[in-house]
């Protein structure tokens, strides 16, 4: 079996293994997205997932919770609703020469947070009157599951049709592009850890998918395997350029000359 055939088979195994690895890792990412969607129903956020379906579910859960929300003043203070006005009051008192270190509870009792709490309750009442939280939840949750299911369908079809891995990759690229504005408008300000995790996770998934797509394209360009002919190759061995066989040495004169096998003496 010539070197060219063996090298082709080495490349075939190498590209196929890389393609299969990309599919396996992308399936893991898709399953993590489904897990994240379910976890949000219990109030648990998870960074390692596709961004759009999880964000839709977060919005749906938020709408459902706000639909029946009835926060106490203490809960609003604990959630940080009055942090800004508290900080402003402390700064004003310090500028006036007051060195007292006020706690949040003391400022609440002084009525510093009354206006911001009243404004929040008024906005919440309007929201609850104008928005059906359960409908919002059903719509967002439905879209979330549909998008995640689309990823799964792409993965299933990519087993026999590599073009579907390209579609899955394009979907993750779009997911990342949608995520980028939120990285800078929210996570950079309020959640640096989330910024790092989301960025690294999406970069890793895109690398895996793009590498799988490239290997799938290279695999498709290889000559079709010969039926009935198999060769054992080590996929860890890189295919080397084919060596040109050295020309055979010239036959010696004795080898080239005809041999007279007729020993009959001449008449």
Features:
10 helices; mainly alpha; single chain
Largest sheet: none
Tell the overall outline.
elongated
Give the helix/strand class: mainly alpha
**Count of strand segments:** 0
- Overall average pLDDT: 81
Distance between the termini: 54 Å
Count helical runs.
10
What fraction strand?
under 5%
Q: Give the low-pLDDT segments.
A: 237-261, 263-267
As for the number of domains, it is: 1
> In sequence order, what are the helices and strands, one letter per element?
HHHHHHHHHH
The helix fraction, in percent, is 55-70%
If you compute it from the alpha carbons, what radius of gyration comes out, rounded to the nearest whole angstrom? 35 Å
């Amino acid at each position: 079996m010539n070197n060219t055939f063996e090298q082709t088979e080495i490349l075939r195994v190498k590209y196929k293994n890389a393609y299969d690895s990309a599919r396996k890792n992308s399936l893991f990412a898709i399953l993590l997205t489904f897990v994240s969607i379910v976890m949000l129903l219990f109030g648990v956020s998870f960074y390692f997932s596709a961004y759009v379906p999880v964000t839709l579910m977060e919005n749906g859960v938020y709408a459902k919770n706000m639909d029946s929300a009835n926060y106490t003043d203490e809960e609003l203070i604990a959630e940080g609703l009055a942090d800004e006005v508290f900080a402003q009051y402390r700064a004003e008192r310090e500028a006036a020469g007051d060195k007292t270190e006020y706690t949040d509870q003391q400022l609440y009792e002084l009525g510093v947070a009354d206006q911001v709490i009243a404004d929040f309750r008024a906005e919440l009442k309007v929201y609850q009157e104008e928005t059906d939280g359960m409908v919002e939840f059903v719509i967002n949750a439905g879209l979330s599951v549909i998008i995640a299911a689309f990823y799964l369908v792409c993965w299933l079809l990519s087993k026999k049709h590599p073009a579907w891995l390209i579609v899955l990759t394009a979907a993750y690229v779009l997911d990342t592009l949608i995520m980028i504005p939120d990285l800078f408008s929210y996570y950079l300000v309020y959640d640096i850890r989330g910024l790092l995790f989301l960025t690294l996770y999406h970069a890793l998934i895109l690398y895996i998918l793009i590498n799988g797509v490239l290997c799938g394209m290279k695999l498709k360009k290889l000559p079709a395997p010969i039926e009935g002919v198999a060769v054992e190759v080590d996929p860890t061995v890189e295919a080397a350029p084919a060596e040109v066989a050295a020309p055979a040495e010239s036959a010696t004169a004795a080898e080239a000359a005809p041999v007279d096998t007729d020993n009959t003496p001449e008449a």
